[in-house]
Write a structure and sequence with these properties.
By secondary structure, this protein is α/β, with parallel strands linked by helices. It has one domain (about 5-90). The protein is about 25% helix and about 20% strand. The protein contains three helices and five strands, in the order βαβαβαββ. It has helices at about 10-20, 35-40, 60-70; strands at about 5, 30-35, 55, 75, 85-90. A five-stranded mixed sheet has the order 2-1-3-5-4, with helices on one face. Strand 1 (about 5), helix 1 and strand 2 form a beta-alpha-beta unit.
Length: about 90
């Protein structure tokens, strides 16, 4: 499973995977692509062939990132409150 993480979600994912309950899970960090601010600013396409999960920090970003998935359809999962991550999964 490959993860695409938008910039604002990076601190939460890093904490969860390095120090929190997901330590040792999901082959972190080798299976993660942490989008840089420059890449996010230009709206680079996200390939559904390359990533299984898109991790966001704000529900308002869902449509923006969904539009950037060039070769697949994605659905969203809203986590229970309180949470600082939102998952798009193809």
């Amino acid at each position: 499973m490959r993860f695409f993480v938008e910039p604002a979600a990076f601190p939460t994912i890093r904490y969860l995977c390095e120090f929190g309950p997901l330590t040792g899970s999901f082959s972190y960090p080798s299976h993660f692509h942490f989008e840089g601010l420059e890449e996010a600013g230009r709206g680079s396409p996200v390939s559904a062939n390359d990533y299984d999960i898109i991790v966001l920090s704000n529900p308002a970003q869902v449509d923006t990132y969904r539009a950037r998935v060039t070769d697949g359809k994605v659905g969203s999962t809203v986590p229970p409150y309180p949470s600082s991550v939102l998952i798009l999964q193809k």
